[in-house]
Amino acid sequence: MIIFIVYLNFDQTWEIWNNAVRMNITNFVFLASQTPEAPLTTISTTEEPHWEDPGPFHVAYPRNYKFIMDDTPVCKTRDPFVILMVPVAPGEVKVRDAIRETWGNEKIVLGQVVDTLFILGRPGGADAEQVQEKLQQENQEHHDLIQSNFRDSYYNLTIKSLVMLEWLVANCKNSAYFIKIDSDTLLHVPNLVKLLLDPSTAKQNYMSGLVWWHSPVIRDSNNRFFLPPEIIAEPEYPPYPLGMAYVMSLDLPRKLLGISTQIKPIYIEDAYLGMCLKRLGISPTEPPAPGMYLVAPTHPLSNCSLSKAVVVMTTGIPLMKNYWERTKDPDLTC
Question: Helices in 172-302 by DSSP H: which ranges?
Fold first, then answer.
């Protein structure tokens, strides 16, 4: 038997181990060393979460990630009616600033308090320390960053979403709703608040968005969303709102986190939440009208389409700003 002793950090451990599994090499001893990619603020390396390798289709969610940046007054000194939670990569400062200047700056809408927060993990790469320093400076100005010590990456979106739910459960007991919304979208905040104030909108067990029904589990191993039958045997996922944007009543995050202990997290974030909903016996709610969630529209949108939309996937900051300015036009109608 040959034993390989490898000195590396946790992110390197993940990559090396996955390659080793594919090569059938399993006799490794990992000794983690502190590097620039170790936790970058007050968290010491001894507090960095440990877990067994989740394999290529699941994610490591050991439930002991820590919040290393969290000084926002949101849900602490004020209780918004709806919280806008925007997952972002650490380096996306231009995107965050664009949102702060547009729909993220809408604080009182139809008489209701609205707050915007950005959720992110820790940066990686050779410039991780510099990126972290800039994040701290940015947060000193805006106090709207919620950062946890998981590694921020596309593969870890499920972790990011579950950590987001943890933060909401811990802090936002007196708020009614939240929406998770991708950073490359336009959110028509008045239309969202109008929808949530409607008496027909449920106050509990409510999760809505662009609901995907009968979404097939991808079996093509060349597709990035591939999952083999031993991970999910069913040919279809349970129904779920597309991850572009989904809105929940604030009773639901606690329930989702509770049931998630019974379902090993897959790396496809929105589908995983649909699996949790099914186990809870809750079905996602369709929007009350078509055209409220637009994932792949033909641009530019007409005034009529834009006036009815709640969320629109855009092509970047210029188009998002253009649409937001158009929503301020009182003549924007069908």
Answer: 189-197, 252-260, 269-280
